[in-house]
Structures are given as structure tokens and as C-alpha cells.
Amino acid sequence: MDFPEELKYSKEHIWVRVEGNRGVIGITDYAQQELGTITVIELPSVGDELEQDDSFGSVEARKTVADLYAPLSGSVAEVNGELRDAPEIVNDDPYDSGWLVVVDIADHEELNLLMSAELYEDYVAESR
């Protein structure tokens, strides 16, 4: 399992890569492995407002559906449109081409509530 050091992580298995005033958001390698083959991803639209810890979409795998919870608040600036036709990209490359949305970060202080890679790795180990 991969835990890139430069990312922040939520307890809901969502990662954030901060790029200036924007946050790129996706699901973790652990989450995609637990879900299995992803068949459908529902995401918000550009311009939608996300509130930290609120549901902003869902991921459907062969046997389950999981809600996606925003790791931080902000306005959706970009949506990964490739996932509509090829949601399995998240299984193949969750940290790069499998990103979900980019948000304009509303409150950088919310990032302090997220885990480092080391803390997230410990969190995953405890939940097994």
C-alpha cells in the first residue's frame, strides 16, 4: 500500500494534495483496495460548494456503494471528467490520474485537522 508523504489524509480515506490555494482530492490506495473494482463515480459539478466532512459524491464498486466526504471546504474548480467513462482509473492510479476534484480552499486551517502520511498509515494499520 502506498502513503505518499506530501499528501494529507482524512479518516474517511480521502487524500488532499495542496497546490497553492487549491486542493486536489482523491481516495487513498487503501480505500480503492477495500472497495474493489470501481464501476461508477458520482462527483459534484464545477462551482459546487463543499463543506468539510459533508458528502460530495459516491463511489460504487461491484458489491458496495461508499459516500465520499470532503476533507476540506471550498468551491469545486475542476472535476476529473475521465472518470465518467473509466472509473477504474482510480483503482489503477489513485494518487495521480485517479484524482476526483480540485477545490479552491476556503479555509487553510482545516488542513491542520487532517493526518500526515505517517499518522494515516498508523490509522489504517489499527483499523485492520
UniProtKB/TrEMBL annotation:
Q: Name one GO cellular component term.
A: cytosol
State how the cofactor is bound: Binds 1 lipoyl cofactor covalently.
The record's annotation in PROSITE patterns points to: BIOTINYL_LIPOYL, LIPOYL
Give all residue intervals belonging to the Lipoyl-binding domain: 22-104
* Residue numbers carrying N6-lipoyllysine: 63
Q: Give the similarity note.
A: Belongs to the GcvH family.
Q: What does this protein do?
A: The glycine cleavage system catalyzes the degradation of glycine. The H protein shuttles the methylamine group of glycine from the P protein to the T protein.
Its assembly, as annotated, is: The glycine cleavage system is composed of four proteins: P, T, L and H.
Q: Which PANTHER family match?
A: GLYCINE CLEAVAGE SYSTEM H PROTEIN, GLYCINE CLEAVAGE SYSTEM H PROTEIN-RELATED
Report the protein name in the record. Glycine cleavage system H protein
